[in-house]
């Protein structure tokens, strides 16, 4: 299950876009004059919080599930995920009419668990660390014979996520920088795949919570450095890089900037207040990094991928104290 698959090619992204088109939204680009003045940049927000299932993950999951042969899909699909990939795989499986099982950490946000159940998938809970959830997932997979779809270390998933950057550069011309949150690296890898082929002049800068900065440390060290159970409010960014995503990151990402928990919450609140849209903490990390590093972005045309909007409305970070771990 942890073998390194061959990386996807640009043609795989093109094929993925056609395959998933009936099952996803072509999400809009929004702008904010206020945030442009605040940062000195011209920012184009790709709103994947409006995507099916509330996150970009629907792209990769649909490509993986609808790319299976009937024989491979017969036993269903399985994954481990803290949230958005879980819901996305459940959504894709329901669309295809196959069973889905998701191994989720017991402290995953309740709205994300509810979404998985609403799509008809089975949840198996585990302790909140990467080692345990991978082990539990492997055990359940052996019992069911289901097709494993890794949240990001999967060429099919990366090819699906790559379609987001394709739409972004079609919708916002002349971008100089594209930035997105990084956890396991599936979206950033897909962004690398697309931009290296269609717009190699565009700089790719990832953004990460300071409390879960293993990708930033990996880029500096030149090798994967993994945290098993980081503590950050950005629950979607707790996963470590894997060999497949690391290959894209080290080849194409120019920098990984970090943001503190307070900066993430402040950026999330700014987007809610100024843009009147709902995003989750992980989505706010790139804006937090832009605000914290004005010299890197001022005067530039910047594409920002808002990755999702699945937030627990009963536990908004500015209404609670401490870090949601």
From TrEMBL:
The keyword Magnesium applies. CDD domains: Thr-dehyd. Gene3D superfamilies: 3.40.50.1100. It comes from the Bacteria. The keyword Magnesium applies. Residues 20-308 form the Tryptophan synthase beta chain-like PALP domain. GO terms for molecular function: ATP binding; L-serine ammonia-lyase activity; magnesium ion binding; pyridoxal phosphate binding; serine racemase activity; threonine racemase activity. One of its GO terms (biological process) is D-serine biosynthetic process. SUPFAM superfamilies: Tryptophan synthase beta subunit-like PLP-dependent enzymes. Pfam families: PALP. Keywords: Lyase, Magnesium, Pyridoxal phosphate. Its cofactor is Ca(2+); Mg(2+); pyridoxal 5'-phosphate; Mn(2+). This is Pyridoxal-phosphate dependent enzyme.
């Amino acid at each position: 299950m942890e073998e390194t698959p061959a990386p996807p090619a640009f043609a795989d992204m093109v094929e993925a876009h056609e395959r998933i088109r009936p099952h996803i939204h072509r999400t809009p680009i929004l702008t904010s004059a206020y945030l442009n003045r605040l940062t000195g940049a011209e920012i184009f927000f790709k709103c994947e919080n409006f995507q099916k299932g509330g996150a970009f993950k629907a792209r990769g999951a649909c490509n993986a599930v609808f790319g299976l042969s009937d024989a491979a899909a017969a036993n269903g699909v399985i994954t481990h995920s803290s949230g958005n990939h879980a819901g996305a795989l459940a959504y894709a499986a329901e669309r295809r009419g196959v069973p889905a099982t998701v191994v989720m950490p017991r402290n995953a946000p309740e709205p994300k668990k509810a979404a998985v159940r609403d799509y008809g998938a089975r949840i198996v809970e585990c302790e909140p660390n990467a080692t345990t959830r991978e082990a539990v997932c492997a055990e359940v997979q052996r019992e069911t014979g289901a097709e494993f779809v890794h949240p990001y270390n999967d060429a099919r998933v990366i090819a699906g996520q790559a379609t987001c950057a394709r739409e972004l550069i079609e919708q916002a011309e002349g971008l100089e920088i594209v930035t997105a949150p990084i956890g396991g690296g599936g979206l950033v890898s897909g962004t690398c795949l697309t931009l290296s082929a269609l717009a190699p002049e565009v700089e790719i800068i990832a953004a990460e919570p300071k409390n879960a900065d293993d990708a930033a440390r990996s880029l500096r060290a030149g090798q994967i450095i993994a945290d098993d159970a980081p503590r950050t409010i950005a629950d979607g960014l707790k996963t470590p890089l894997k060999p497949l995503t690391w290959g894209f990151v080290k080849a194409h990402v120019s920098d990984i900037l970090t943001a503190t928990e307070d900066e993430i919450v402040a950026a999330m609140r700014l987007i809610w207040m100024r843009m009147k849209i709902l995003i989750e903490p992980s989505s706010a990390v790139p804006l937090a990094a832009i605000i914290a590093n004005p010299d890197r972005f001022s005067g530039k045309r910047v594409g920002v991928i808002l990755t999702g909007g699945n937030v627990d409305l009963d536990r908004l970070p500015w209404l609670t104290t401490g870090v949601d771990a």
